[in-house]
Amino acid sequence: MICELTTIACPLLAIHEVADGARAWISGPLADGSLLGCWRTEIGTLGRLLVLRSFDTAEALAVERQRALLSDTPFNASSRVKSLSMESYAPFPFLPPPQIGARGPAYEFRTYQLKPGGLPPTLVGWQQAIAPARDYTERLVINMYALDGPPRITHIWGFRDLYQRSALRTAAYSSGVWPPRGGPDQIVEASSTIALPEPGSPLA
Q1: Cα 85 to Cα 196: distance, rounded to the nearest angstrom
Q2: Is residue 166 domain-shared with residue 132, that is, in the same domain?
Q3: What is the mean pLDDT of residues 188-195?
């Protein structure tokens, strides 16, 4: 499996309109891939629509990416859309595929830009930490490493609310099972965004 995370920027009051257009784009007769989730940002940079899709092969993603690049209106981008970015990711190989359903509704998107060569030790640290930190990591929806752009990982977490997020993270840190050993040493820059699912998002 390979994933694409698309970020669409638009005015705050146009987010639902833009989401409707994007859903039509990714479900049209020429579309490939499976929609995993569609969210609007709530804490962080606002006016962003986040769309996560999975593809069976890199070739299928490449064809879909070309469809967007050669379109005058990718993702049915109207005059409301200010910018569009598409990023390719591979899921961490030792994690199960993301399970769609009600995993939120408070989703956290965390992106860590890594030092050059920082991905291998990051993978090792995460693999060793997943089971010991199960109370926390069972809220992990997916973790992925970028296939384009600077070295980085993006992990998505689903929580009932921000209180649950805070309690689980505090407990994991206090018990010493989190963060993954050696992981923070590889991080150059980190960002976090809280997003809410749009109507019709498989990850709700």
Answers
A1: 19
A2: yes
A3: 98
